[in-house]
Specification:
- It is a single chain.
- This protein is of the alpha+beta class.
- It has two domains: 7-147, Trna Endonuclease, Chain: A, domain 1; 156-286, Aspartate Aminotransferase, domain 1 (Alpha-Beta Complex).
- Helix content is 32%, strand content 33%.
- The chain has eight helices and 14 strands.
- The protein has helices at residues 19-28, 77-93, 110-119, 167-173, 176-192, 236-244, 265-270, 272-286; strands at 7-9, 38-47, 51-59, 64-74, 98-107, 125-135, 138-147, 196-200, 205-209, 212-213, 217-221, 226-231, 251-253, 258-263.
- Helix 5 packs across helix 8.
- The longest helix is centred in the first third of the chain and has 17 residues, at 77-93.
- It is elongated and about 65 Å long.
């Protein structure tokens, strides 16, 4: 093999490879961004009174979305503001997900890198520099992460930050039927530890023990089913049992080490032994 030096190409001034072309390449292969396994949710997503979001991605196994804005040439104030604005709109529209703003540009100058780094810690923000190279009659894109997201603490690590509600709130938001499912889960847990109780927060139902949050299990009731969240290390054994039980549609959040299992009332009854087994495993892993 012979060495060949690639030629740097400016996409901003290129007559053929425009911003839409870059969006299509990222949409086809989201791994280019270096953010893990992502699936495309939408392109040119209309934002009311605020233009269109270039790309919206979601982690394949996690409740996490990425709002991606692409700019050719140097980044500027308008690009930063637009990226943050679209991120804010999406997180307010879909609060059940974690959201990260992703700014992509050909040239992120040190001045603007310093500016956007000020937001990090307050806004989950990733900055990615994109460069195009030509080698013969082929062109390639290289993406380099120049600012990574500062991880923020979980709500239950600072439980005072959670907005507490009551059971009536959840009966209106979900249904009495799915609230009865949470009661069944609580009954299983209280066989393991009678001091465990439910705590009704605005976006999920957690657990307390002696008045302190201990969310090794979280519950998110919907109208006809609920999400059962279990803090467990991922294992082939658990994956196989869920698949055999017909609960393979569940998700694993590798970031927080949590299984998410979608359960109807009928499935909860039919799979009671498996649910009890998994609850016990989560309890044991959470116990000191």
């Amino acid at each position: 093999m012979k060495y060949a030096k690639p030629e740097r190409v400016s996409l901003q001034s290129h007559p053929e490879f425009d911003e839409r072309w870059v969006q299509e390449r990222i949409a086809e292969d989201p791994t280019l961004l270096g953010l893990g396994p992502l699936k495309l949710k939408d392109k040119e997503r209309l934002q009311r009174h605020a233009g269109r979001l270039d790309l919206l991605f979601q982690e394949a196994e996690v409740h996490h979305r990425y709002e991606v804005e692409v700019q050719l040439g140097k980044t500027d104030e308008a690009h930063i503001i637009r990226t943050l604005e679209y991120w804010d709109i999406e997180r307010k529209r879909y609060p059940q997900y974690d959201h990260t703003a992703v700014l992509v540009a050909e040239d992120i100058t040190s001045r603007f890198l310093n500016i956007i780094s000020l937001f990090n810690g307050f806004v989950p923000l990733v900055a990615i520099q994109m460069q195009a190279y030509r080698l013969g009659d082929q062109i390639s894109l290289v993406f380099t992460k120049v600012l990574d997201q500062m991880r923020l603490g979980l709500v239950d690590e600072d439980e005072e930050a959670a907005e507490e509600v009551n059971r009536s709130y959840w009966e209106k938001r979900a249904s009495k039927t799915t609230l009865e499912c949470t009661d069944q889960v609580l009954a299983h847990l209280q066989h393991l530890d009678p001091e465990i109780a439910l705590k009704y927060n605005k976006f999920y139902i957690g657990l307390t023990k002696r008045g302190r949050a201990n969310n090794f299990v979280t519950l998110t009731p919907k109208k006809d089913w609920m999400w059962l969240g279990l803090r467990l290390e991922r294992s082939d054994d658990v994956d196989q049992k869920l698949e055999q039980a017909g609960l393979g549609g569940g998700e694993y959040d590798s970031k927080w080490g949590q299984y998410w299992i979608r359960l109807t009332r009928e499935e909860l009854q039919e799979q009671q032994p498996l649910v009890q087994e998994l609850l016990q495993a989560a309890y044991q892993q959470a116990s000191p």
